[in-house]
Write a structure and sequence with these properties.
Two copies of one chain form a homodimer. Chain A is of the alpha/beta class and 475 residues long. The first copy, chain A, has helices at residues 3-16, 29-36, 40-52, 70-74, 90-99, 115-118, 121-130, 148-160, 175-187, 202-210, 228-237, 259-272, 311-314, 329-339, 345-354, 358-385, 411-420, 451-474; strands spanning 56-59, 63-66, 82-84, 106-107, 170-173, 193-197, 214-218, 220-221, 225-226, 240-245, 275-279, 304-309, 321-324, 391-393, 400-404, 423-424, 426-427, 440-444. Chains A, B: This is HTH gntR-type domain-containing protein.
């Protein structure tokens, strides 16, 4: 990492955790040189980088200032809750996913990081070694709750984060998708009420539809990501049984909710005796020094089922996820026994050797740096070329950019148009109900900005401009 | 294979396909020597082996005769259909499976062949090679319907059997269990009627319960395995939407239904416009020269969804199954996308190299021979030591023996008692409703009859004897 990137990151952390308020003045270049020990050029590069990201702005002869909270621009606030008794997002998601399977398509709409970044030669070497051992054939691991050693390792990772966890708290699943689905199935019956964020991973909508649940949505909070007031109101108004939330590196928007808010959510869950299914698949893809805490950390009364996987860190093809089951271990194992039985035993064995080695942590460190770098490059490219009528929401984790287009631009039409150019984006209708405006897109920026990707982004920018102009022309 | 085994097998085939009727006289030893070209000793050994298996009996000075049809003894005939609006087999299966997970337990109740038999060094070598290639990380295969090359190979295996099949007809799943579940989910809605065999793989009961289906059962036919009259009557009486049947190496009983009956089933399905989910996971584990035909072969009008996997041939840990989807490809892919996304891409890649090689066919040949041998050894041991009040039903495929105990012996109590000795068997209540008698057990005889297994069988025989005596004592 360049020194300027390092400095920019530490300043960004101060801005994002609220230490440096909006519109307060940054230390002058000279002061910063003295404070940091970096050269003037390094400090200047760092400030310009932050400016390019929209985190600070400069006034001539006055220096640099902290920008208004990005999220303030990003999230329009609709503080009402919504009841959506019938969900019909399924077919759309299916068609979308099928359309983007083609290898010739530039996968800017993908939910997975560029597979080149996930490739880990050491893990593959370990898998190859295991493939030579007869033990990988044994049946003992191929039943719920999964390989004991692997569960111990996952449990110890929770414990290291201050969440006392035992191997018996963990059930290994075929990816986080199965973890989330089994959890919801274990906790609900058809007709039950479930609470979702207004924008959320489409898997939540699909599961709700499939299980015949009534969905209440609450809007995102413009500054904090999560709206406690709406949440409390919804819990008071509806007999909600389960919430399904993303609070770290939210998909599709990208925000991470503060610990204070998480603490309050936990309190409300306990007060209302409502369970939470926490989707935390991006937990390892933070950019700062600290892994964000999951809701499970604040969960003193066992209302949280925490779901994650290795799909976003070592590859979706591994199909190994897990759920921290709380008191629902039996119910979830039971459902798994009826549906898929187990995840690949070979890969489970291999992970047991790979995870505790320094290789995994090293891999994660590199992955985070690469994702941060690529996201910044994407951001700068879009910021430089995209119409100023669009707003780009940059959060320092993960690999998504959430882009707000002018209200008259329909992201689904844009998606269809780009598909003709063999480019996929994720339109907002995948994540939110049709009753809301659909002028948002999610862009996967985990890729190197090579010529192919740059051409795709240029085409995206061009199509957006056309859509904007089309409205202006027809006025 | 010994010559005597070869001869015994060809005679057994003649008996089982009905060419040699019950109580008809076998060729004399001398005649058989002339016919077969084998030595007198070989012929004698073969006849004695068949006698040990209960397939023939000898009369002093008269020679050998074909025994009464085994199935006639085995399957009491209850030609009425049954409506079971509410199923509660789930919890019992769960407790059963959990209790038998312990590695210290002798797994005579397991549904999977002894893992030593499944181990294939060549496959593992191929997996190890693939684990060194970056390509296994690519995302293109990790979406339904699964790896194209693998689907082509599976399709060609159908085509070789005379079932014209295209790669697009196949969806790869996480084992056959997922294939069966997704098929049922795609075809039914809560409240629909489904038809099952009276005894069937517990996964069918679990799926029916989970999806809220009404279950109609038909009894097995004492001679033919499948009762066409009951089947026709049930289709006429109830608005059945889907059947879920096993017709090859039936689990738990073991019979394989004749082609003539399969043809008639296909006709009735078409007449009544009813779909069939065919569970054919033991299709490769036949002992004769010909792989039994699946219902799919007789299905001219696309009413059959044929489900199978590699779990019973190369290991349950592989978690690769498939469904021949007929016209339901989209519906099934759609459901898979919502639940598990895909099976392990690495293993899919490896199978693409392994399956078309001669290694897989060689592996299958060895596996069949070993299973046949082990099953015969088990059968002979049980026949020699088990109370004559029990009936053992031997069919020449797979690795299950279905044992009928005297009616007053409850297989569930026997199961619990044996568990204290660290021995698991499969009691009939796993496969049939509680309203029926539960005096059957399924024994997995895929193991080498080593000391540990022999002790377990001796303990089983002893406990059965005690249970029989207990009744006699209390009279």
């Amino acid at each position: 990492m360049y020194k300027s990137e390092q400095l920019a990151r530490s300043i960004r952390a101060l801005i994002e955790n609220g230490s440096w308020q909006a519109h307060s003045k940054l230390p002058s270049l000279r002061e910063q040189v003295q404070r940091s020990g970096f050269s003037l050029m390094t400090v200047l590069n760092a400030y310009q980088e932050l400016e390019a990201q929209g985190l600070v702005y400069s006034k001539e002869k006055s220096g640099y200032f902290v920008a208004g909270n990005l999220a303030t621009q990003a999230l329009a606030h609709h503080p009402e809750t919504k009841l959506n008794a019938h969900i019909e997002i399924n077919s759309q998601v299916f068609n979308y996913l099928k359309a983007t399977q083609d290898e010739e398509i530039v996968p800017l709409g993908s939910a997975f990081p560029c597979s080149d970044l996930l490739y880990n030669a050491k893990l593959m070497q370990i898998i190859a070694q295991h493939a030579k051992r007869k033990r990988s054939y044994l049946n003992s691991d191929s039943m719920p709750p999964g390989n004991l050693e692997l569960r111990k390792i996952i449990a110890s990772r929770y414990s290291l984060q201050g969440i006392p966890t035992d191997a018996n708290d963990i059930v290994i699943t075929s990816g986080a998708l199965e973890a989330l689905n089994l959890s919801l199935q274990a906790l609900t019956q058809a007709g039950d009420y479930i609470l979702l964020q207004q924008n959320i991973f489409y898997g939540a909508w699909q599961a709700a539809e499939r299980l015949g649940l009534k969905v209440i949505t609450i809007p995102e909070h413009p500054q904090h990501g999560f709206d406690l007031v709406s949440f409390d109101a919804a819990l008071n108004k509806y007999p909600i049984k389960v919430c399904w939330l993303m609070l770290n590196s939210h998909n599709p928007i990208g925000f991470t909710v503060s610990n204070e808010i998480k603490f309050q959510i936990a309190k409300l869950l306990h007060e209302h005796q409502v369970y939470l299914i926490e989707d935390d698949v991006y937990q390892e893809l933070y950019y700062g020094a600290q892994k964000p805490l999951p809701m499970k950390y604040f969960d003193q009364h066992n209302y949280v089922l925490h779901c994650s996987s290795f799909s976003k860190t070592i590859g979706m093809g591994t199909r190994i996820g897990w759920v921290h089951v709380g008191k629902f271990s039996n119910a979830i194992q039971h459902l798994q026994m009826m549906s898929t039985l187990s995840a690949s035993t070979l890969v489970q064995h291999a992970l047991v050797d790979f995870l505790p080695s320094h290789h995994y942590e090293k891999h994660l460190r590199q992955l985070r740096l690469q994702l941060e770098h690529n996201k910044q490059v994407f951001y700068q490219f879009l910021k430089a070329h995209l119409s100023t009528q669009c707003e780009i929401y940059y959060y320092s984790s993960g690999y998504f950019l959430w882009v707000k287009l002018p209200e008259h631009v329909d992201s689904m039409s844009l998606y269809r148009q780009l598909l003709e150019y063999k480019i996929a984006i994720a339109p907002s209708s995948l994540f939110r109900l049709n009753t809301l405006t659909q002028n948002f897109i999610r862009i996967n920026c985990s890729f190197n900005l090579n010529e192919r990707i740059q051409q795709a982004l240029a085409q995206l920018i061009c199509c957006i401009q056309q859509a904007i102009n089309h409205r202006s022309d027809s006025r």
